[in-house]
Amino acid sequence: MTSGLRAAAPASAPRTRDARWPAAAAVVVAVLAGVAAPATGPLLTAGLAVVALVAAAAYRPIFATYLYLATLPLVAGIDRGKFIPLVRPNEALLALLLAGAGLGGFLRWVQGRPLPLRARRVDLPLAMFVVLATVWPLASMMLRGHHPHGDDLAAVLPVCKLTALYLLVRCTVRTEPQTVRCIRLVVWPAAAIAVLAVLQTLHVGPVVSALATLWPSDSGVLGERGTTTLGSSIATGDYITISLTMVICCAGNGLLGRRERLVLGLTLGAGVLAAGQFSTWVAAAVAAVVLLRRFPGLRGRLVRMLPIAAVAVLVGAPAFLGRLDGFGDGYGVPRSWLGRWDNLSTFYLPRLGDFGFVTGVSPNSVLPAPETWRNEIFLESGYLQFLWVGGIPLLVAFGWLSFAVLRATGRVRADSGAVGACAITLQVGWWIVLVLSLIDIHLVLRGAGDLLFTLLAITTGGTNDDRDP
Fold first, then answer.
1. pLDDT tens digits, residue range 399-452?
2. Which domain holds residue 258?
3. Is residue 288 included in any domain, yes or no?
4. Which residues cross the membrane (predicted)?
5. Rounded to an integer, what distance in angstroms lies between the CA atom of residue 134 and that of residue 155?
6. From CA 38, how far away is CA 51, in angstroms rounded?
7. Number of structural domains, the chain?
8. Of 167, 179, 252, 254, which sits 20 to 30 A from 364 (CA to CA)?
9. In a domain? residue 355
10. 20, part of any domain
11. Confidence (pTM)
């Protein structure tokens, strides 16, 4: 069976020295930025770095995708507004890379080259979901006499970012080697944060101290769960689980080296436990069910993999055992679960019950806390989040998008190459979202949401017209 990738454009004439000057200029500017830092201050240095990034992305748009994926788990957990008002560093980086890639694409279009973007069946439900998740909530607020504030505008940024990332990957990832590089740029950084999660839950002092500087925890003490540089144990768990699924899918399609897969599998398997989240373990169970149905041959290999799995369990066990202790507090279930239900029944369900579920309540689901021991209250239910933000229209749009995504993966998953591996990973990841949205909004989680939309772009953009997902 063919790899399912569109054929690359015919090779042009050999590049001359003049044709390579933009890349050389980007490198020179980046070097000058570092040299000039002590003398000119951070502002000029940042300006030179911005010019270098934009120039490199304009000259080679695939560079934008590579750089974003490689740095994603390292910078996505830094708080919004920490360095740049209203946005996270990864959002600012994506904006710069998009500007460069867009500039390069425009210049190529002026030269007569075709745009590397064609409509797919999934684009219409995706566009409807984006509109109902961004424009509709703000319009609904104004129609009800409320004026959106900065927090409301910031609340719609994640969906805008994911849409922009989807377009970037659709336009830049065009060949099998590029897809394989993207896979490696996902799984190896994921292995790095899996190691961080293990070290964090083992209370390794330097690691915990380093994480406390820029990546605050979403779940209390930094050593209790593997929040890592994503700043969230839930996001860390999803990111590692999806990456582990990708490694297994690559193994099923004969991609990556055997030793590479072994090291990645061992590391990521330990990270799944070290995340310390029940939702992560449920996600791993969902992934196992889908993968065993897709790769029946894996069942026979499970016995041979038990020694490796045992090592991963031992390494990641501290966080797992620590979470199980929550059932012994005398409440029957962990106290965090009781607090979650109390938040829903006290602060969210009453406002949704007053016909708020029809058109939505607000694009921002974070509420100020009336108590002194906490500052904010979070809506911890994915499907209720859809109703809170955009009402029934947004929930229906998510259902339509889910149907389109699963249909698209069904058309491409038989591909024996990198696109097929990405399609199966996307299918597993989307089923995880459908299941876990009962308890959290996993679709737009930092890091994990980026992976899902990257996989969606590769699955749909990297296929032949006869499949047209």
1. 999 999 999 998 887 777 899 999 999 999 999 999 999 988 899 988 999 999
2. 121-332+368-461
3. yes
4. 66-86, 92-110, 122-143, 155-173, 185-215, 262-290, 302-321, 383-406, 418-445
5. 9
6. 19
7. 1
8. 167
9. no
10. no
11. 0.85
